[in-house]
Specification:
By secondary structure, this protein is an alpha/beta fold. It has 21 helices and 13 strands. Bound molecules: arginine (ARG).
Length: 588
């Protein structure tokens, strides 16, 4: 369906043209004076310059053309030259009823769907997920869902950090503790055990211990580096261990992501890119892009227009080892070969921006990625605590994601038990659902690139601009619908009637903005626009609810019309929260 803004623009533009002015002046926007009107056009002000006339004279002419049109209740020319527009109740009811007949509620899919790969999550194997990984997961998942809703083929890749020294560290520590394991016997020729020689909690202890030791003991670090080298050059025992580390980690990661309603189409890692490195490097050399500088192999990526220095992309260290740049480039090689994406999006901490500038430029320059494939970096800000510093545990440590989620679940559970008496199991499940909305909405309601303060008390509140408030509004709707249906009534086939008071109209106006909100969020990869929209919509609904006697309305058509309006609002809210990556409980 066409956006309301577009429908108004068409009428206003036609009026400008009929008066002899260019069509470009017919642009319409939401009113910034909601006390005066709903939409406005400022075109007369701009046209005044070109046509050397007073803006109000132009506005008055155009305004006359727009009188008596069914779409408008009123169009008024206001000094110095605004057109203030109020939609007619009939037009609005009609628009909303059309939305109701469309299962996508008036949101059209894109004409030419794209294949988009989205790299998000980015956890590191054998290290527990911490809050730093939370934002990538939440934002990436939402962008993926929005793209999919708009018709694009979205392929999410978790891009595990499963390569490099961390693996050598684990192997070294394990060998120290259990030298008798077959993985360390160079003469072993049998098959390796299927069972991993450690659990996830052991793994999560082994890695930090090894990492600490390596910082204090150069010999230990040397050993870990050798182990890493041997692992990467085919040591069968080490490779079997790597398999175990991956399996144990990945199943733990999957469980964690599942609790966040986050899932990935691909579970590829940095290690999957390694086989592509030799040929990629050879080609970069043969094509004359890569050269040796201070022992390392590099590709220049600076451009004349740079205002700050962009260092060369590092392809190989002097010892021949590959780096973070190399892995991301080789990952692009298989992504292009296997999926031919129209676009690759990276949702990563904005502090990695320089790395991606280098990688993107190098990938273009060396022909890994053609111009027809867009590369987009969506850098997110830091999640801070109330003290404005990166979020930490009470004793100052890095907060494990699991613990953070558990803490918020607990808080929500207490709240729910305070409010109502619900069976224990239902309260636990409800708490989990509502807590997730608190975490996700708290994050997504901010523009991704900005830092934000993770304020548990505010995020979990049932009032204000929060996830729980949105869910509370949906639950309220469900309960009204239940009561209505319990009376044996149904609003199937009913239509929304033109508004008879201000709060009804305000709700319909908000509903009618649904497609615009989604298009905006899609075009700008900006879930926060959906949050802003549903907050307004929920507020409009709650005002309507307080000012309208729905259940005691005696005129059945009127009542069914209200219920229809409610159902529609509920559907829109439900689509939106699904795009944000959470859901609503039955009650709370
Ligand atoms: N594993 C990395 C980290 O924890 C994030 C990976 C981001 N994605 C990428 N393609 N480099 O910092």
């Amino acid at each position: 369906m066409k956006e309301v803004l577009e429908l108004i623009r068409q009428e206003v533009t036609a009026a400008f043209v009929r008066c002899g002015y260019d069509e470009k002046y017919g642009r319409v926007s939401l009113s910034n004076r909601p006390d005066l009107c709903e939409y406005q056009c400022n075109g007369a002000m701009a046209a005044a310059k070109e046509y050397k006339k007073a803006p109000i004279a132009i506005a008055t002419e155009v305004c006359e053309q727009l009188q008596g049109q069914a779409m408008f209740e009123s169009v008024v020319a206001c000094p110095p030259g605004f057109l203030n527009i109020i939609l007619s109740g009939d037009f609005l009811a009609d628009y909303v009823n059309h939305m109701a007949q469309d299962e996508r509620m008036g949101v059209d899919q894109v004409d030419t769907p794209k294949t988009i790969m989205i790299d998000y999550g980015g956890p590191n194997v054998a290290k527990p997920l911490h809050v730093g990984h939370l934002r990538s997961a939440i934002i990436g998942e939402s962008i993926k869902r929005i793209g999919r809703f708009m018709g694009d083929t979205m392929i999410g890749d978790v891009h595990l950090g499963d390569w490099g020294l961390q693996m050598g560290l684990i192997i070294t520590e394990l060998r120290l503790r259990q030298p008798q394991l077959v993985y360390f016997d160079p003469d072993y020729e049998g098959t390796y055990p299927e069972e991993a020689p450690f659990t996830i909690s052991e793994l999560e202890e082994i890695y930090p211990t090894a990492s600490k030791k390596s910082k204090e003991d150069p010999a230990y670090k040397e050993e870990a580096m050798t182990a890493t080298y041997e692992l990467q050059h085919g040591n069968p025992g080490y490779q079997a261990l790597l398999g175990h580390i991956l399996n144990v980690s990945v199943s733990d990661l999957k469980r964690n992501y599942e609790n966040l309603n986050v899932s990935f189409e691909l579970w590829k890692g940095e290690s999957d890119a390694q086989p592509y490195i030799p040929a990629m490097v050879d080609k970069m050399k043969a094509d004359g892009f890569a050269y040796v500088s201070e022992g390392a192999l590099v590709v220049d990526v600076k451009e004349d227009t740079d205002t700050k220095e962009i260092p060369p992309c590092m392809i190989l260290k002097s010892d021949g080892a590959s780096l973070y740049d190399t892995t991301d480039l080789a990952t692009l090689v298989w992504r292009m070969e296997d999926y031919h994406p129209d676009k690759v999006i990276y949702v990563v901490d904005k502090r990695q921006e320089l790395h991606f500038i280098q990688v993107f430029r190098c990938a273009r320059k060396t022909g890994i990625v053609p111009d027809s494939t867009a590369l987009e970096f969506i850098g997110f800000g830091t999640m801070n605590g109330k003290d404005g510093k990166p979020f930490k545990t009470r004793d100052g440590g890095v907060m494990r994601l699991e613990n953070l989620v558990a803490e918020i679940n607990e808080k929500m559970y207490e709240k729910i038990m305070e409010n109502k008496t619900m069976p224990e199991a239902e309260a636990k499940e409800t708490a989990r659902i509502v807590a997730l909305s608190a975490i996700k909405y708290g994050d997504l309601s901010n523009q991704a690139s900005k830092d934000y303060i993770f304020d548990v008390d505010r995020f979990t509140s049932f009032e204000g601009n929060t996830g729980p408030y949105i869910l509370y509004t949906i639950v309220r709707m469900k309960s009204i619908l239940n009561r209505y249906h319990d009376e044996g009534k149904s609003a199937d086939g009913a239509v929304v009637l033109p508004a008879t008071n201000e709060s009804q109209k305000a709700l319909m106006l908000e509903l009618a903005k649904f497609n615009s909100a989604i298009y905006g969020a899609y075009e700008e990869s900006a879930p926060h626009r959906i949050c802003a929209y549903i907050y307004d919509l929920a507020n409009a609904f709650n005002r309507f609810y307080h000012e309208t006697k729905i259940m005691t309305e005696e005129d059945e058509d009127k009542q069914a019309g209200y219920i229809r309006l409610l159902e529609l609002t509920k559907s829109v809210l439900e689509i939106c929260i699904d795009l944000l990556g959470f859901e609503a409980p039955e009650r709370m």
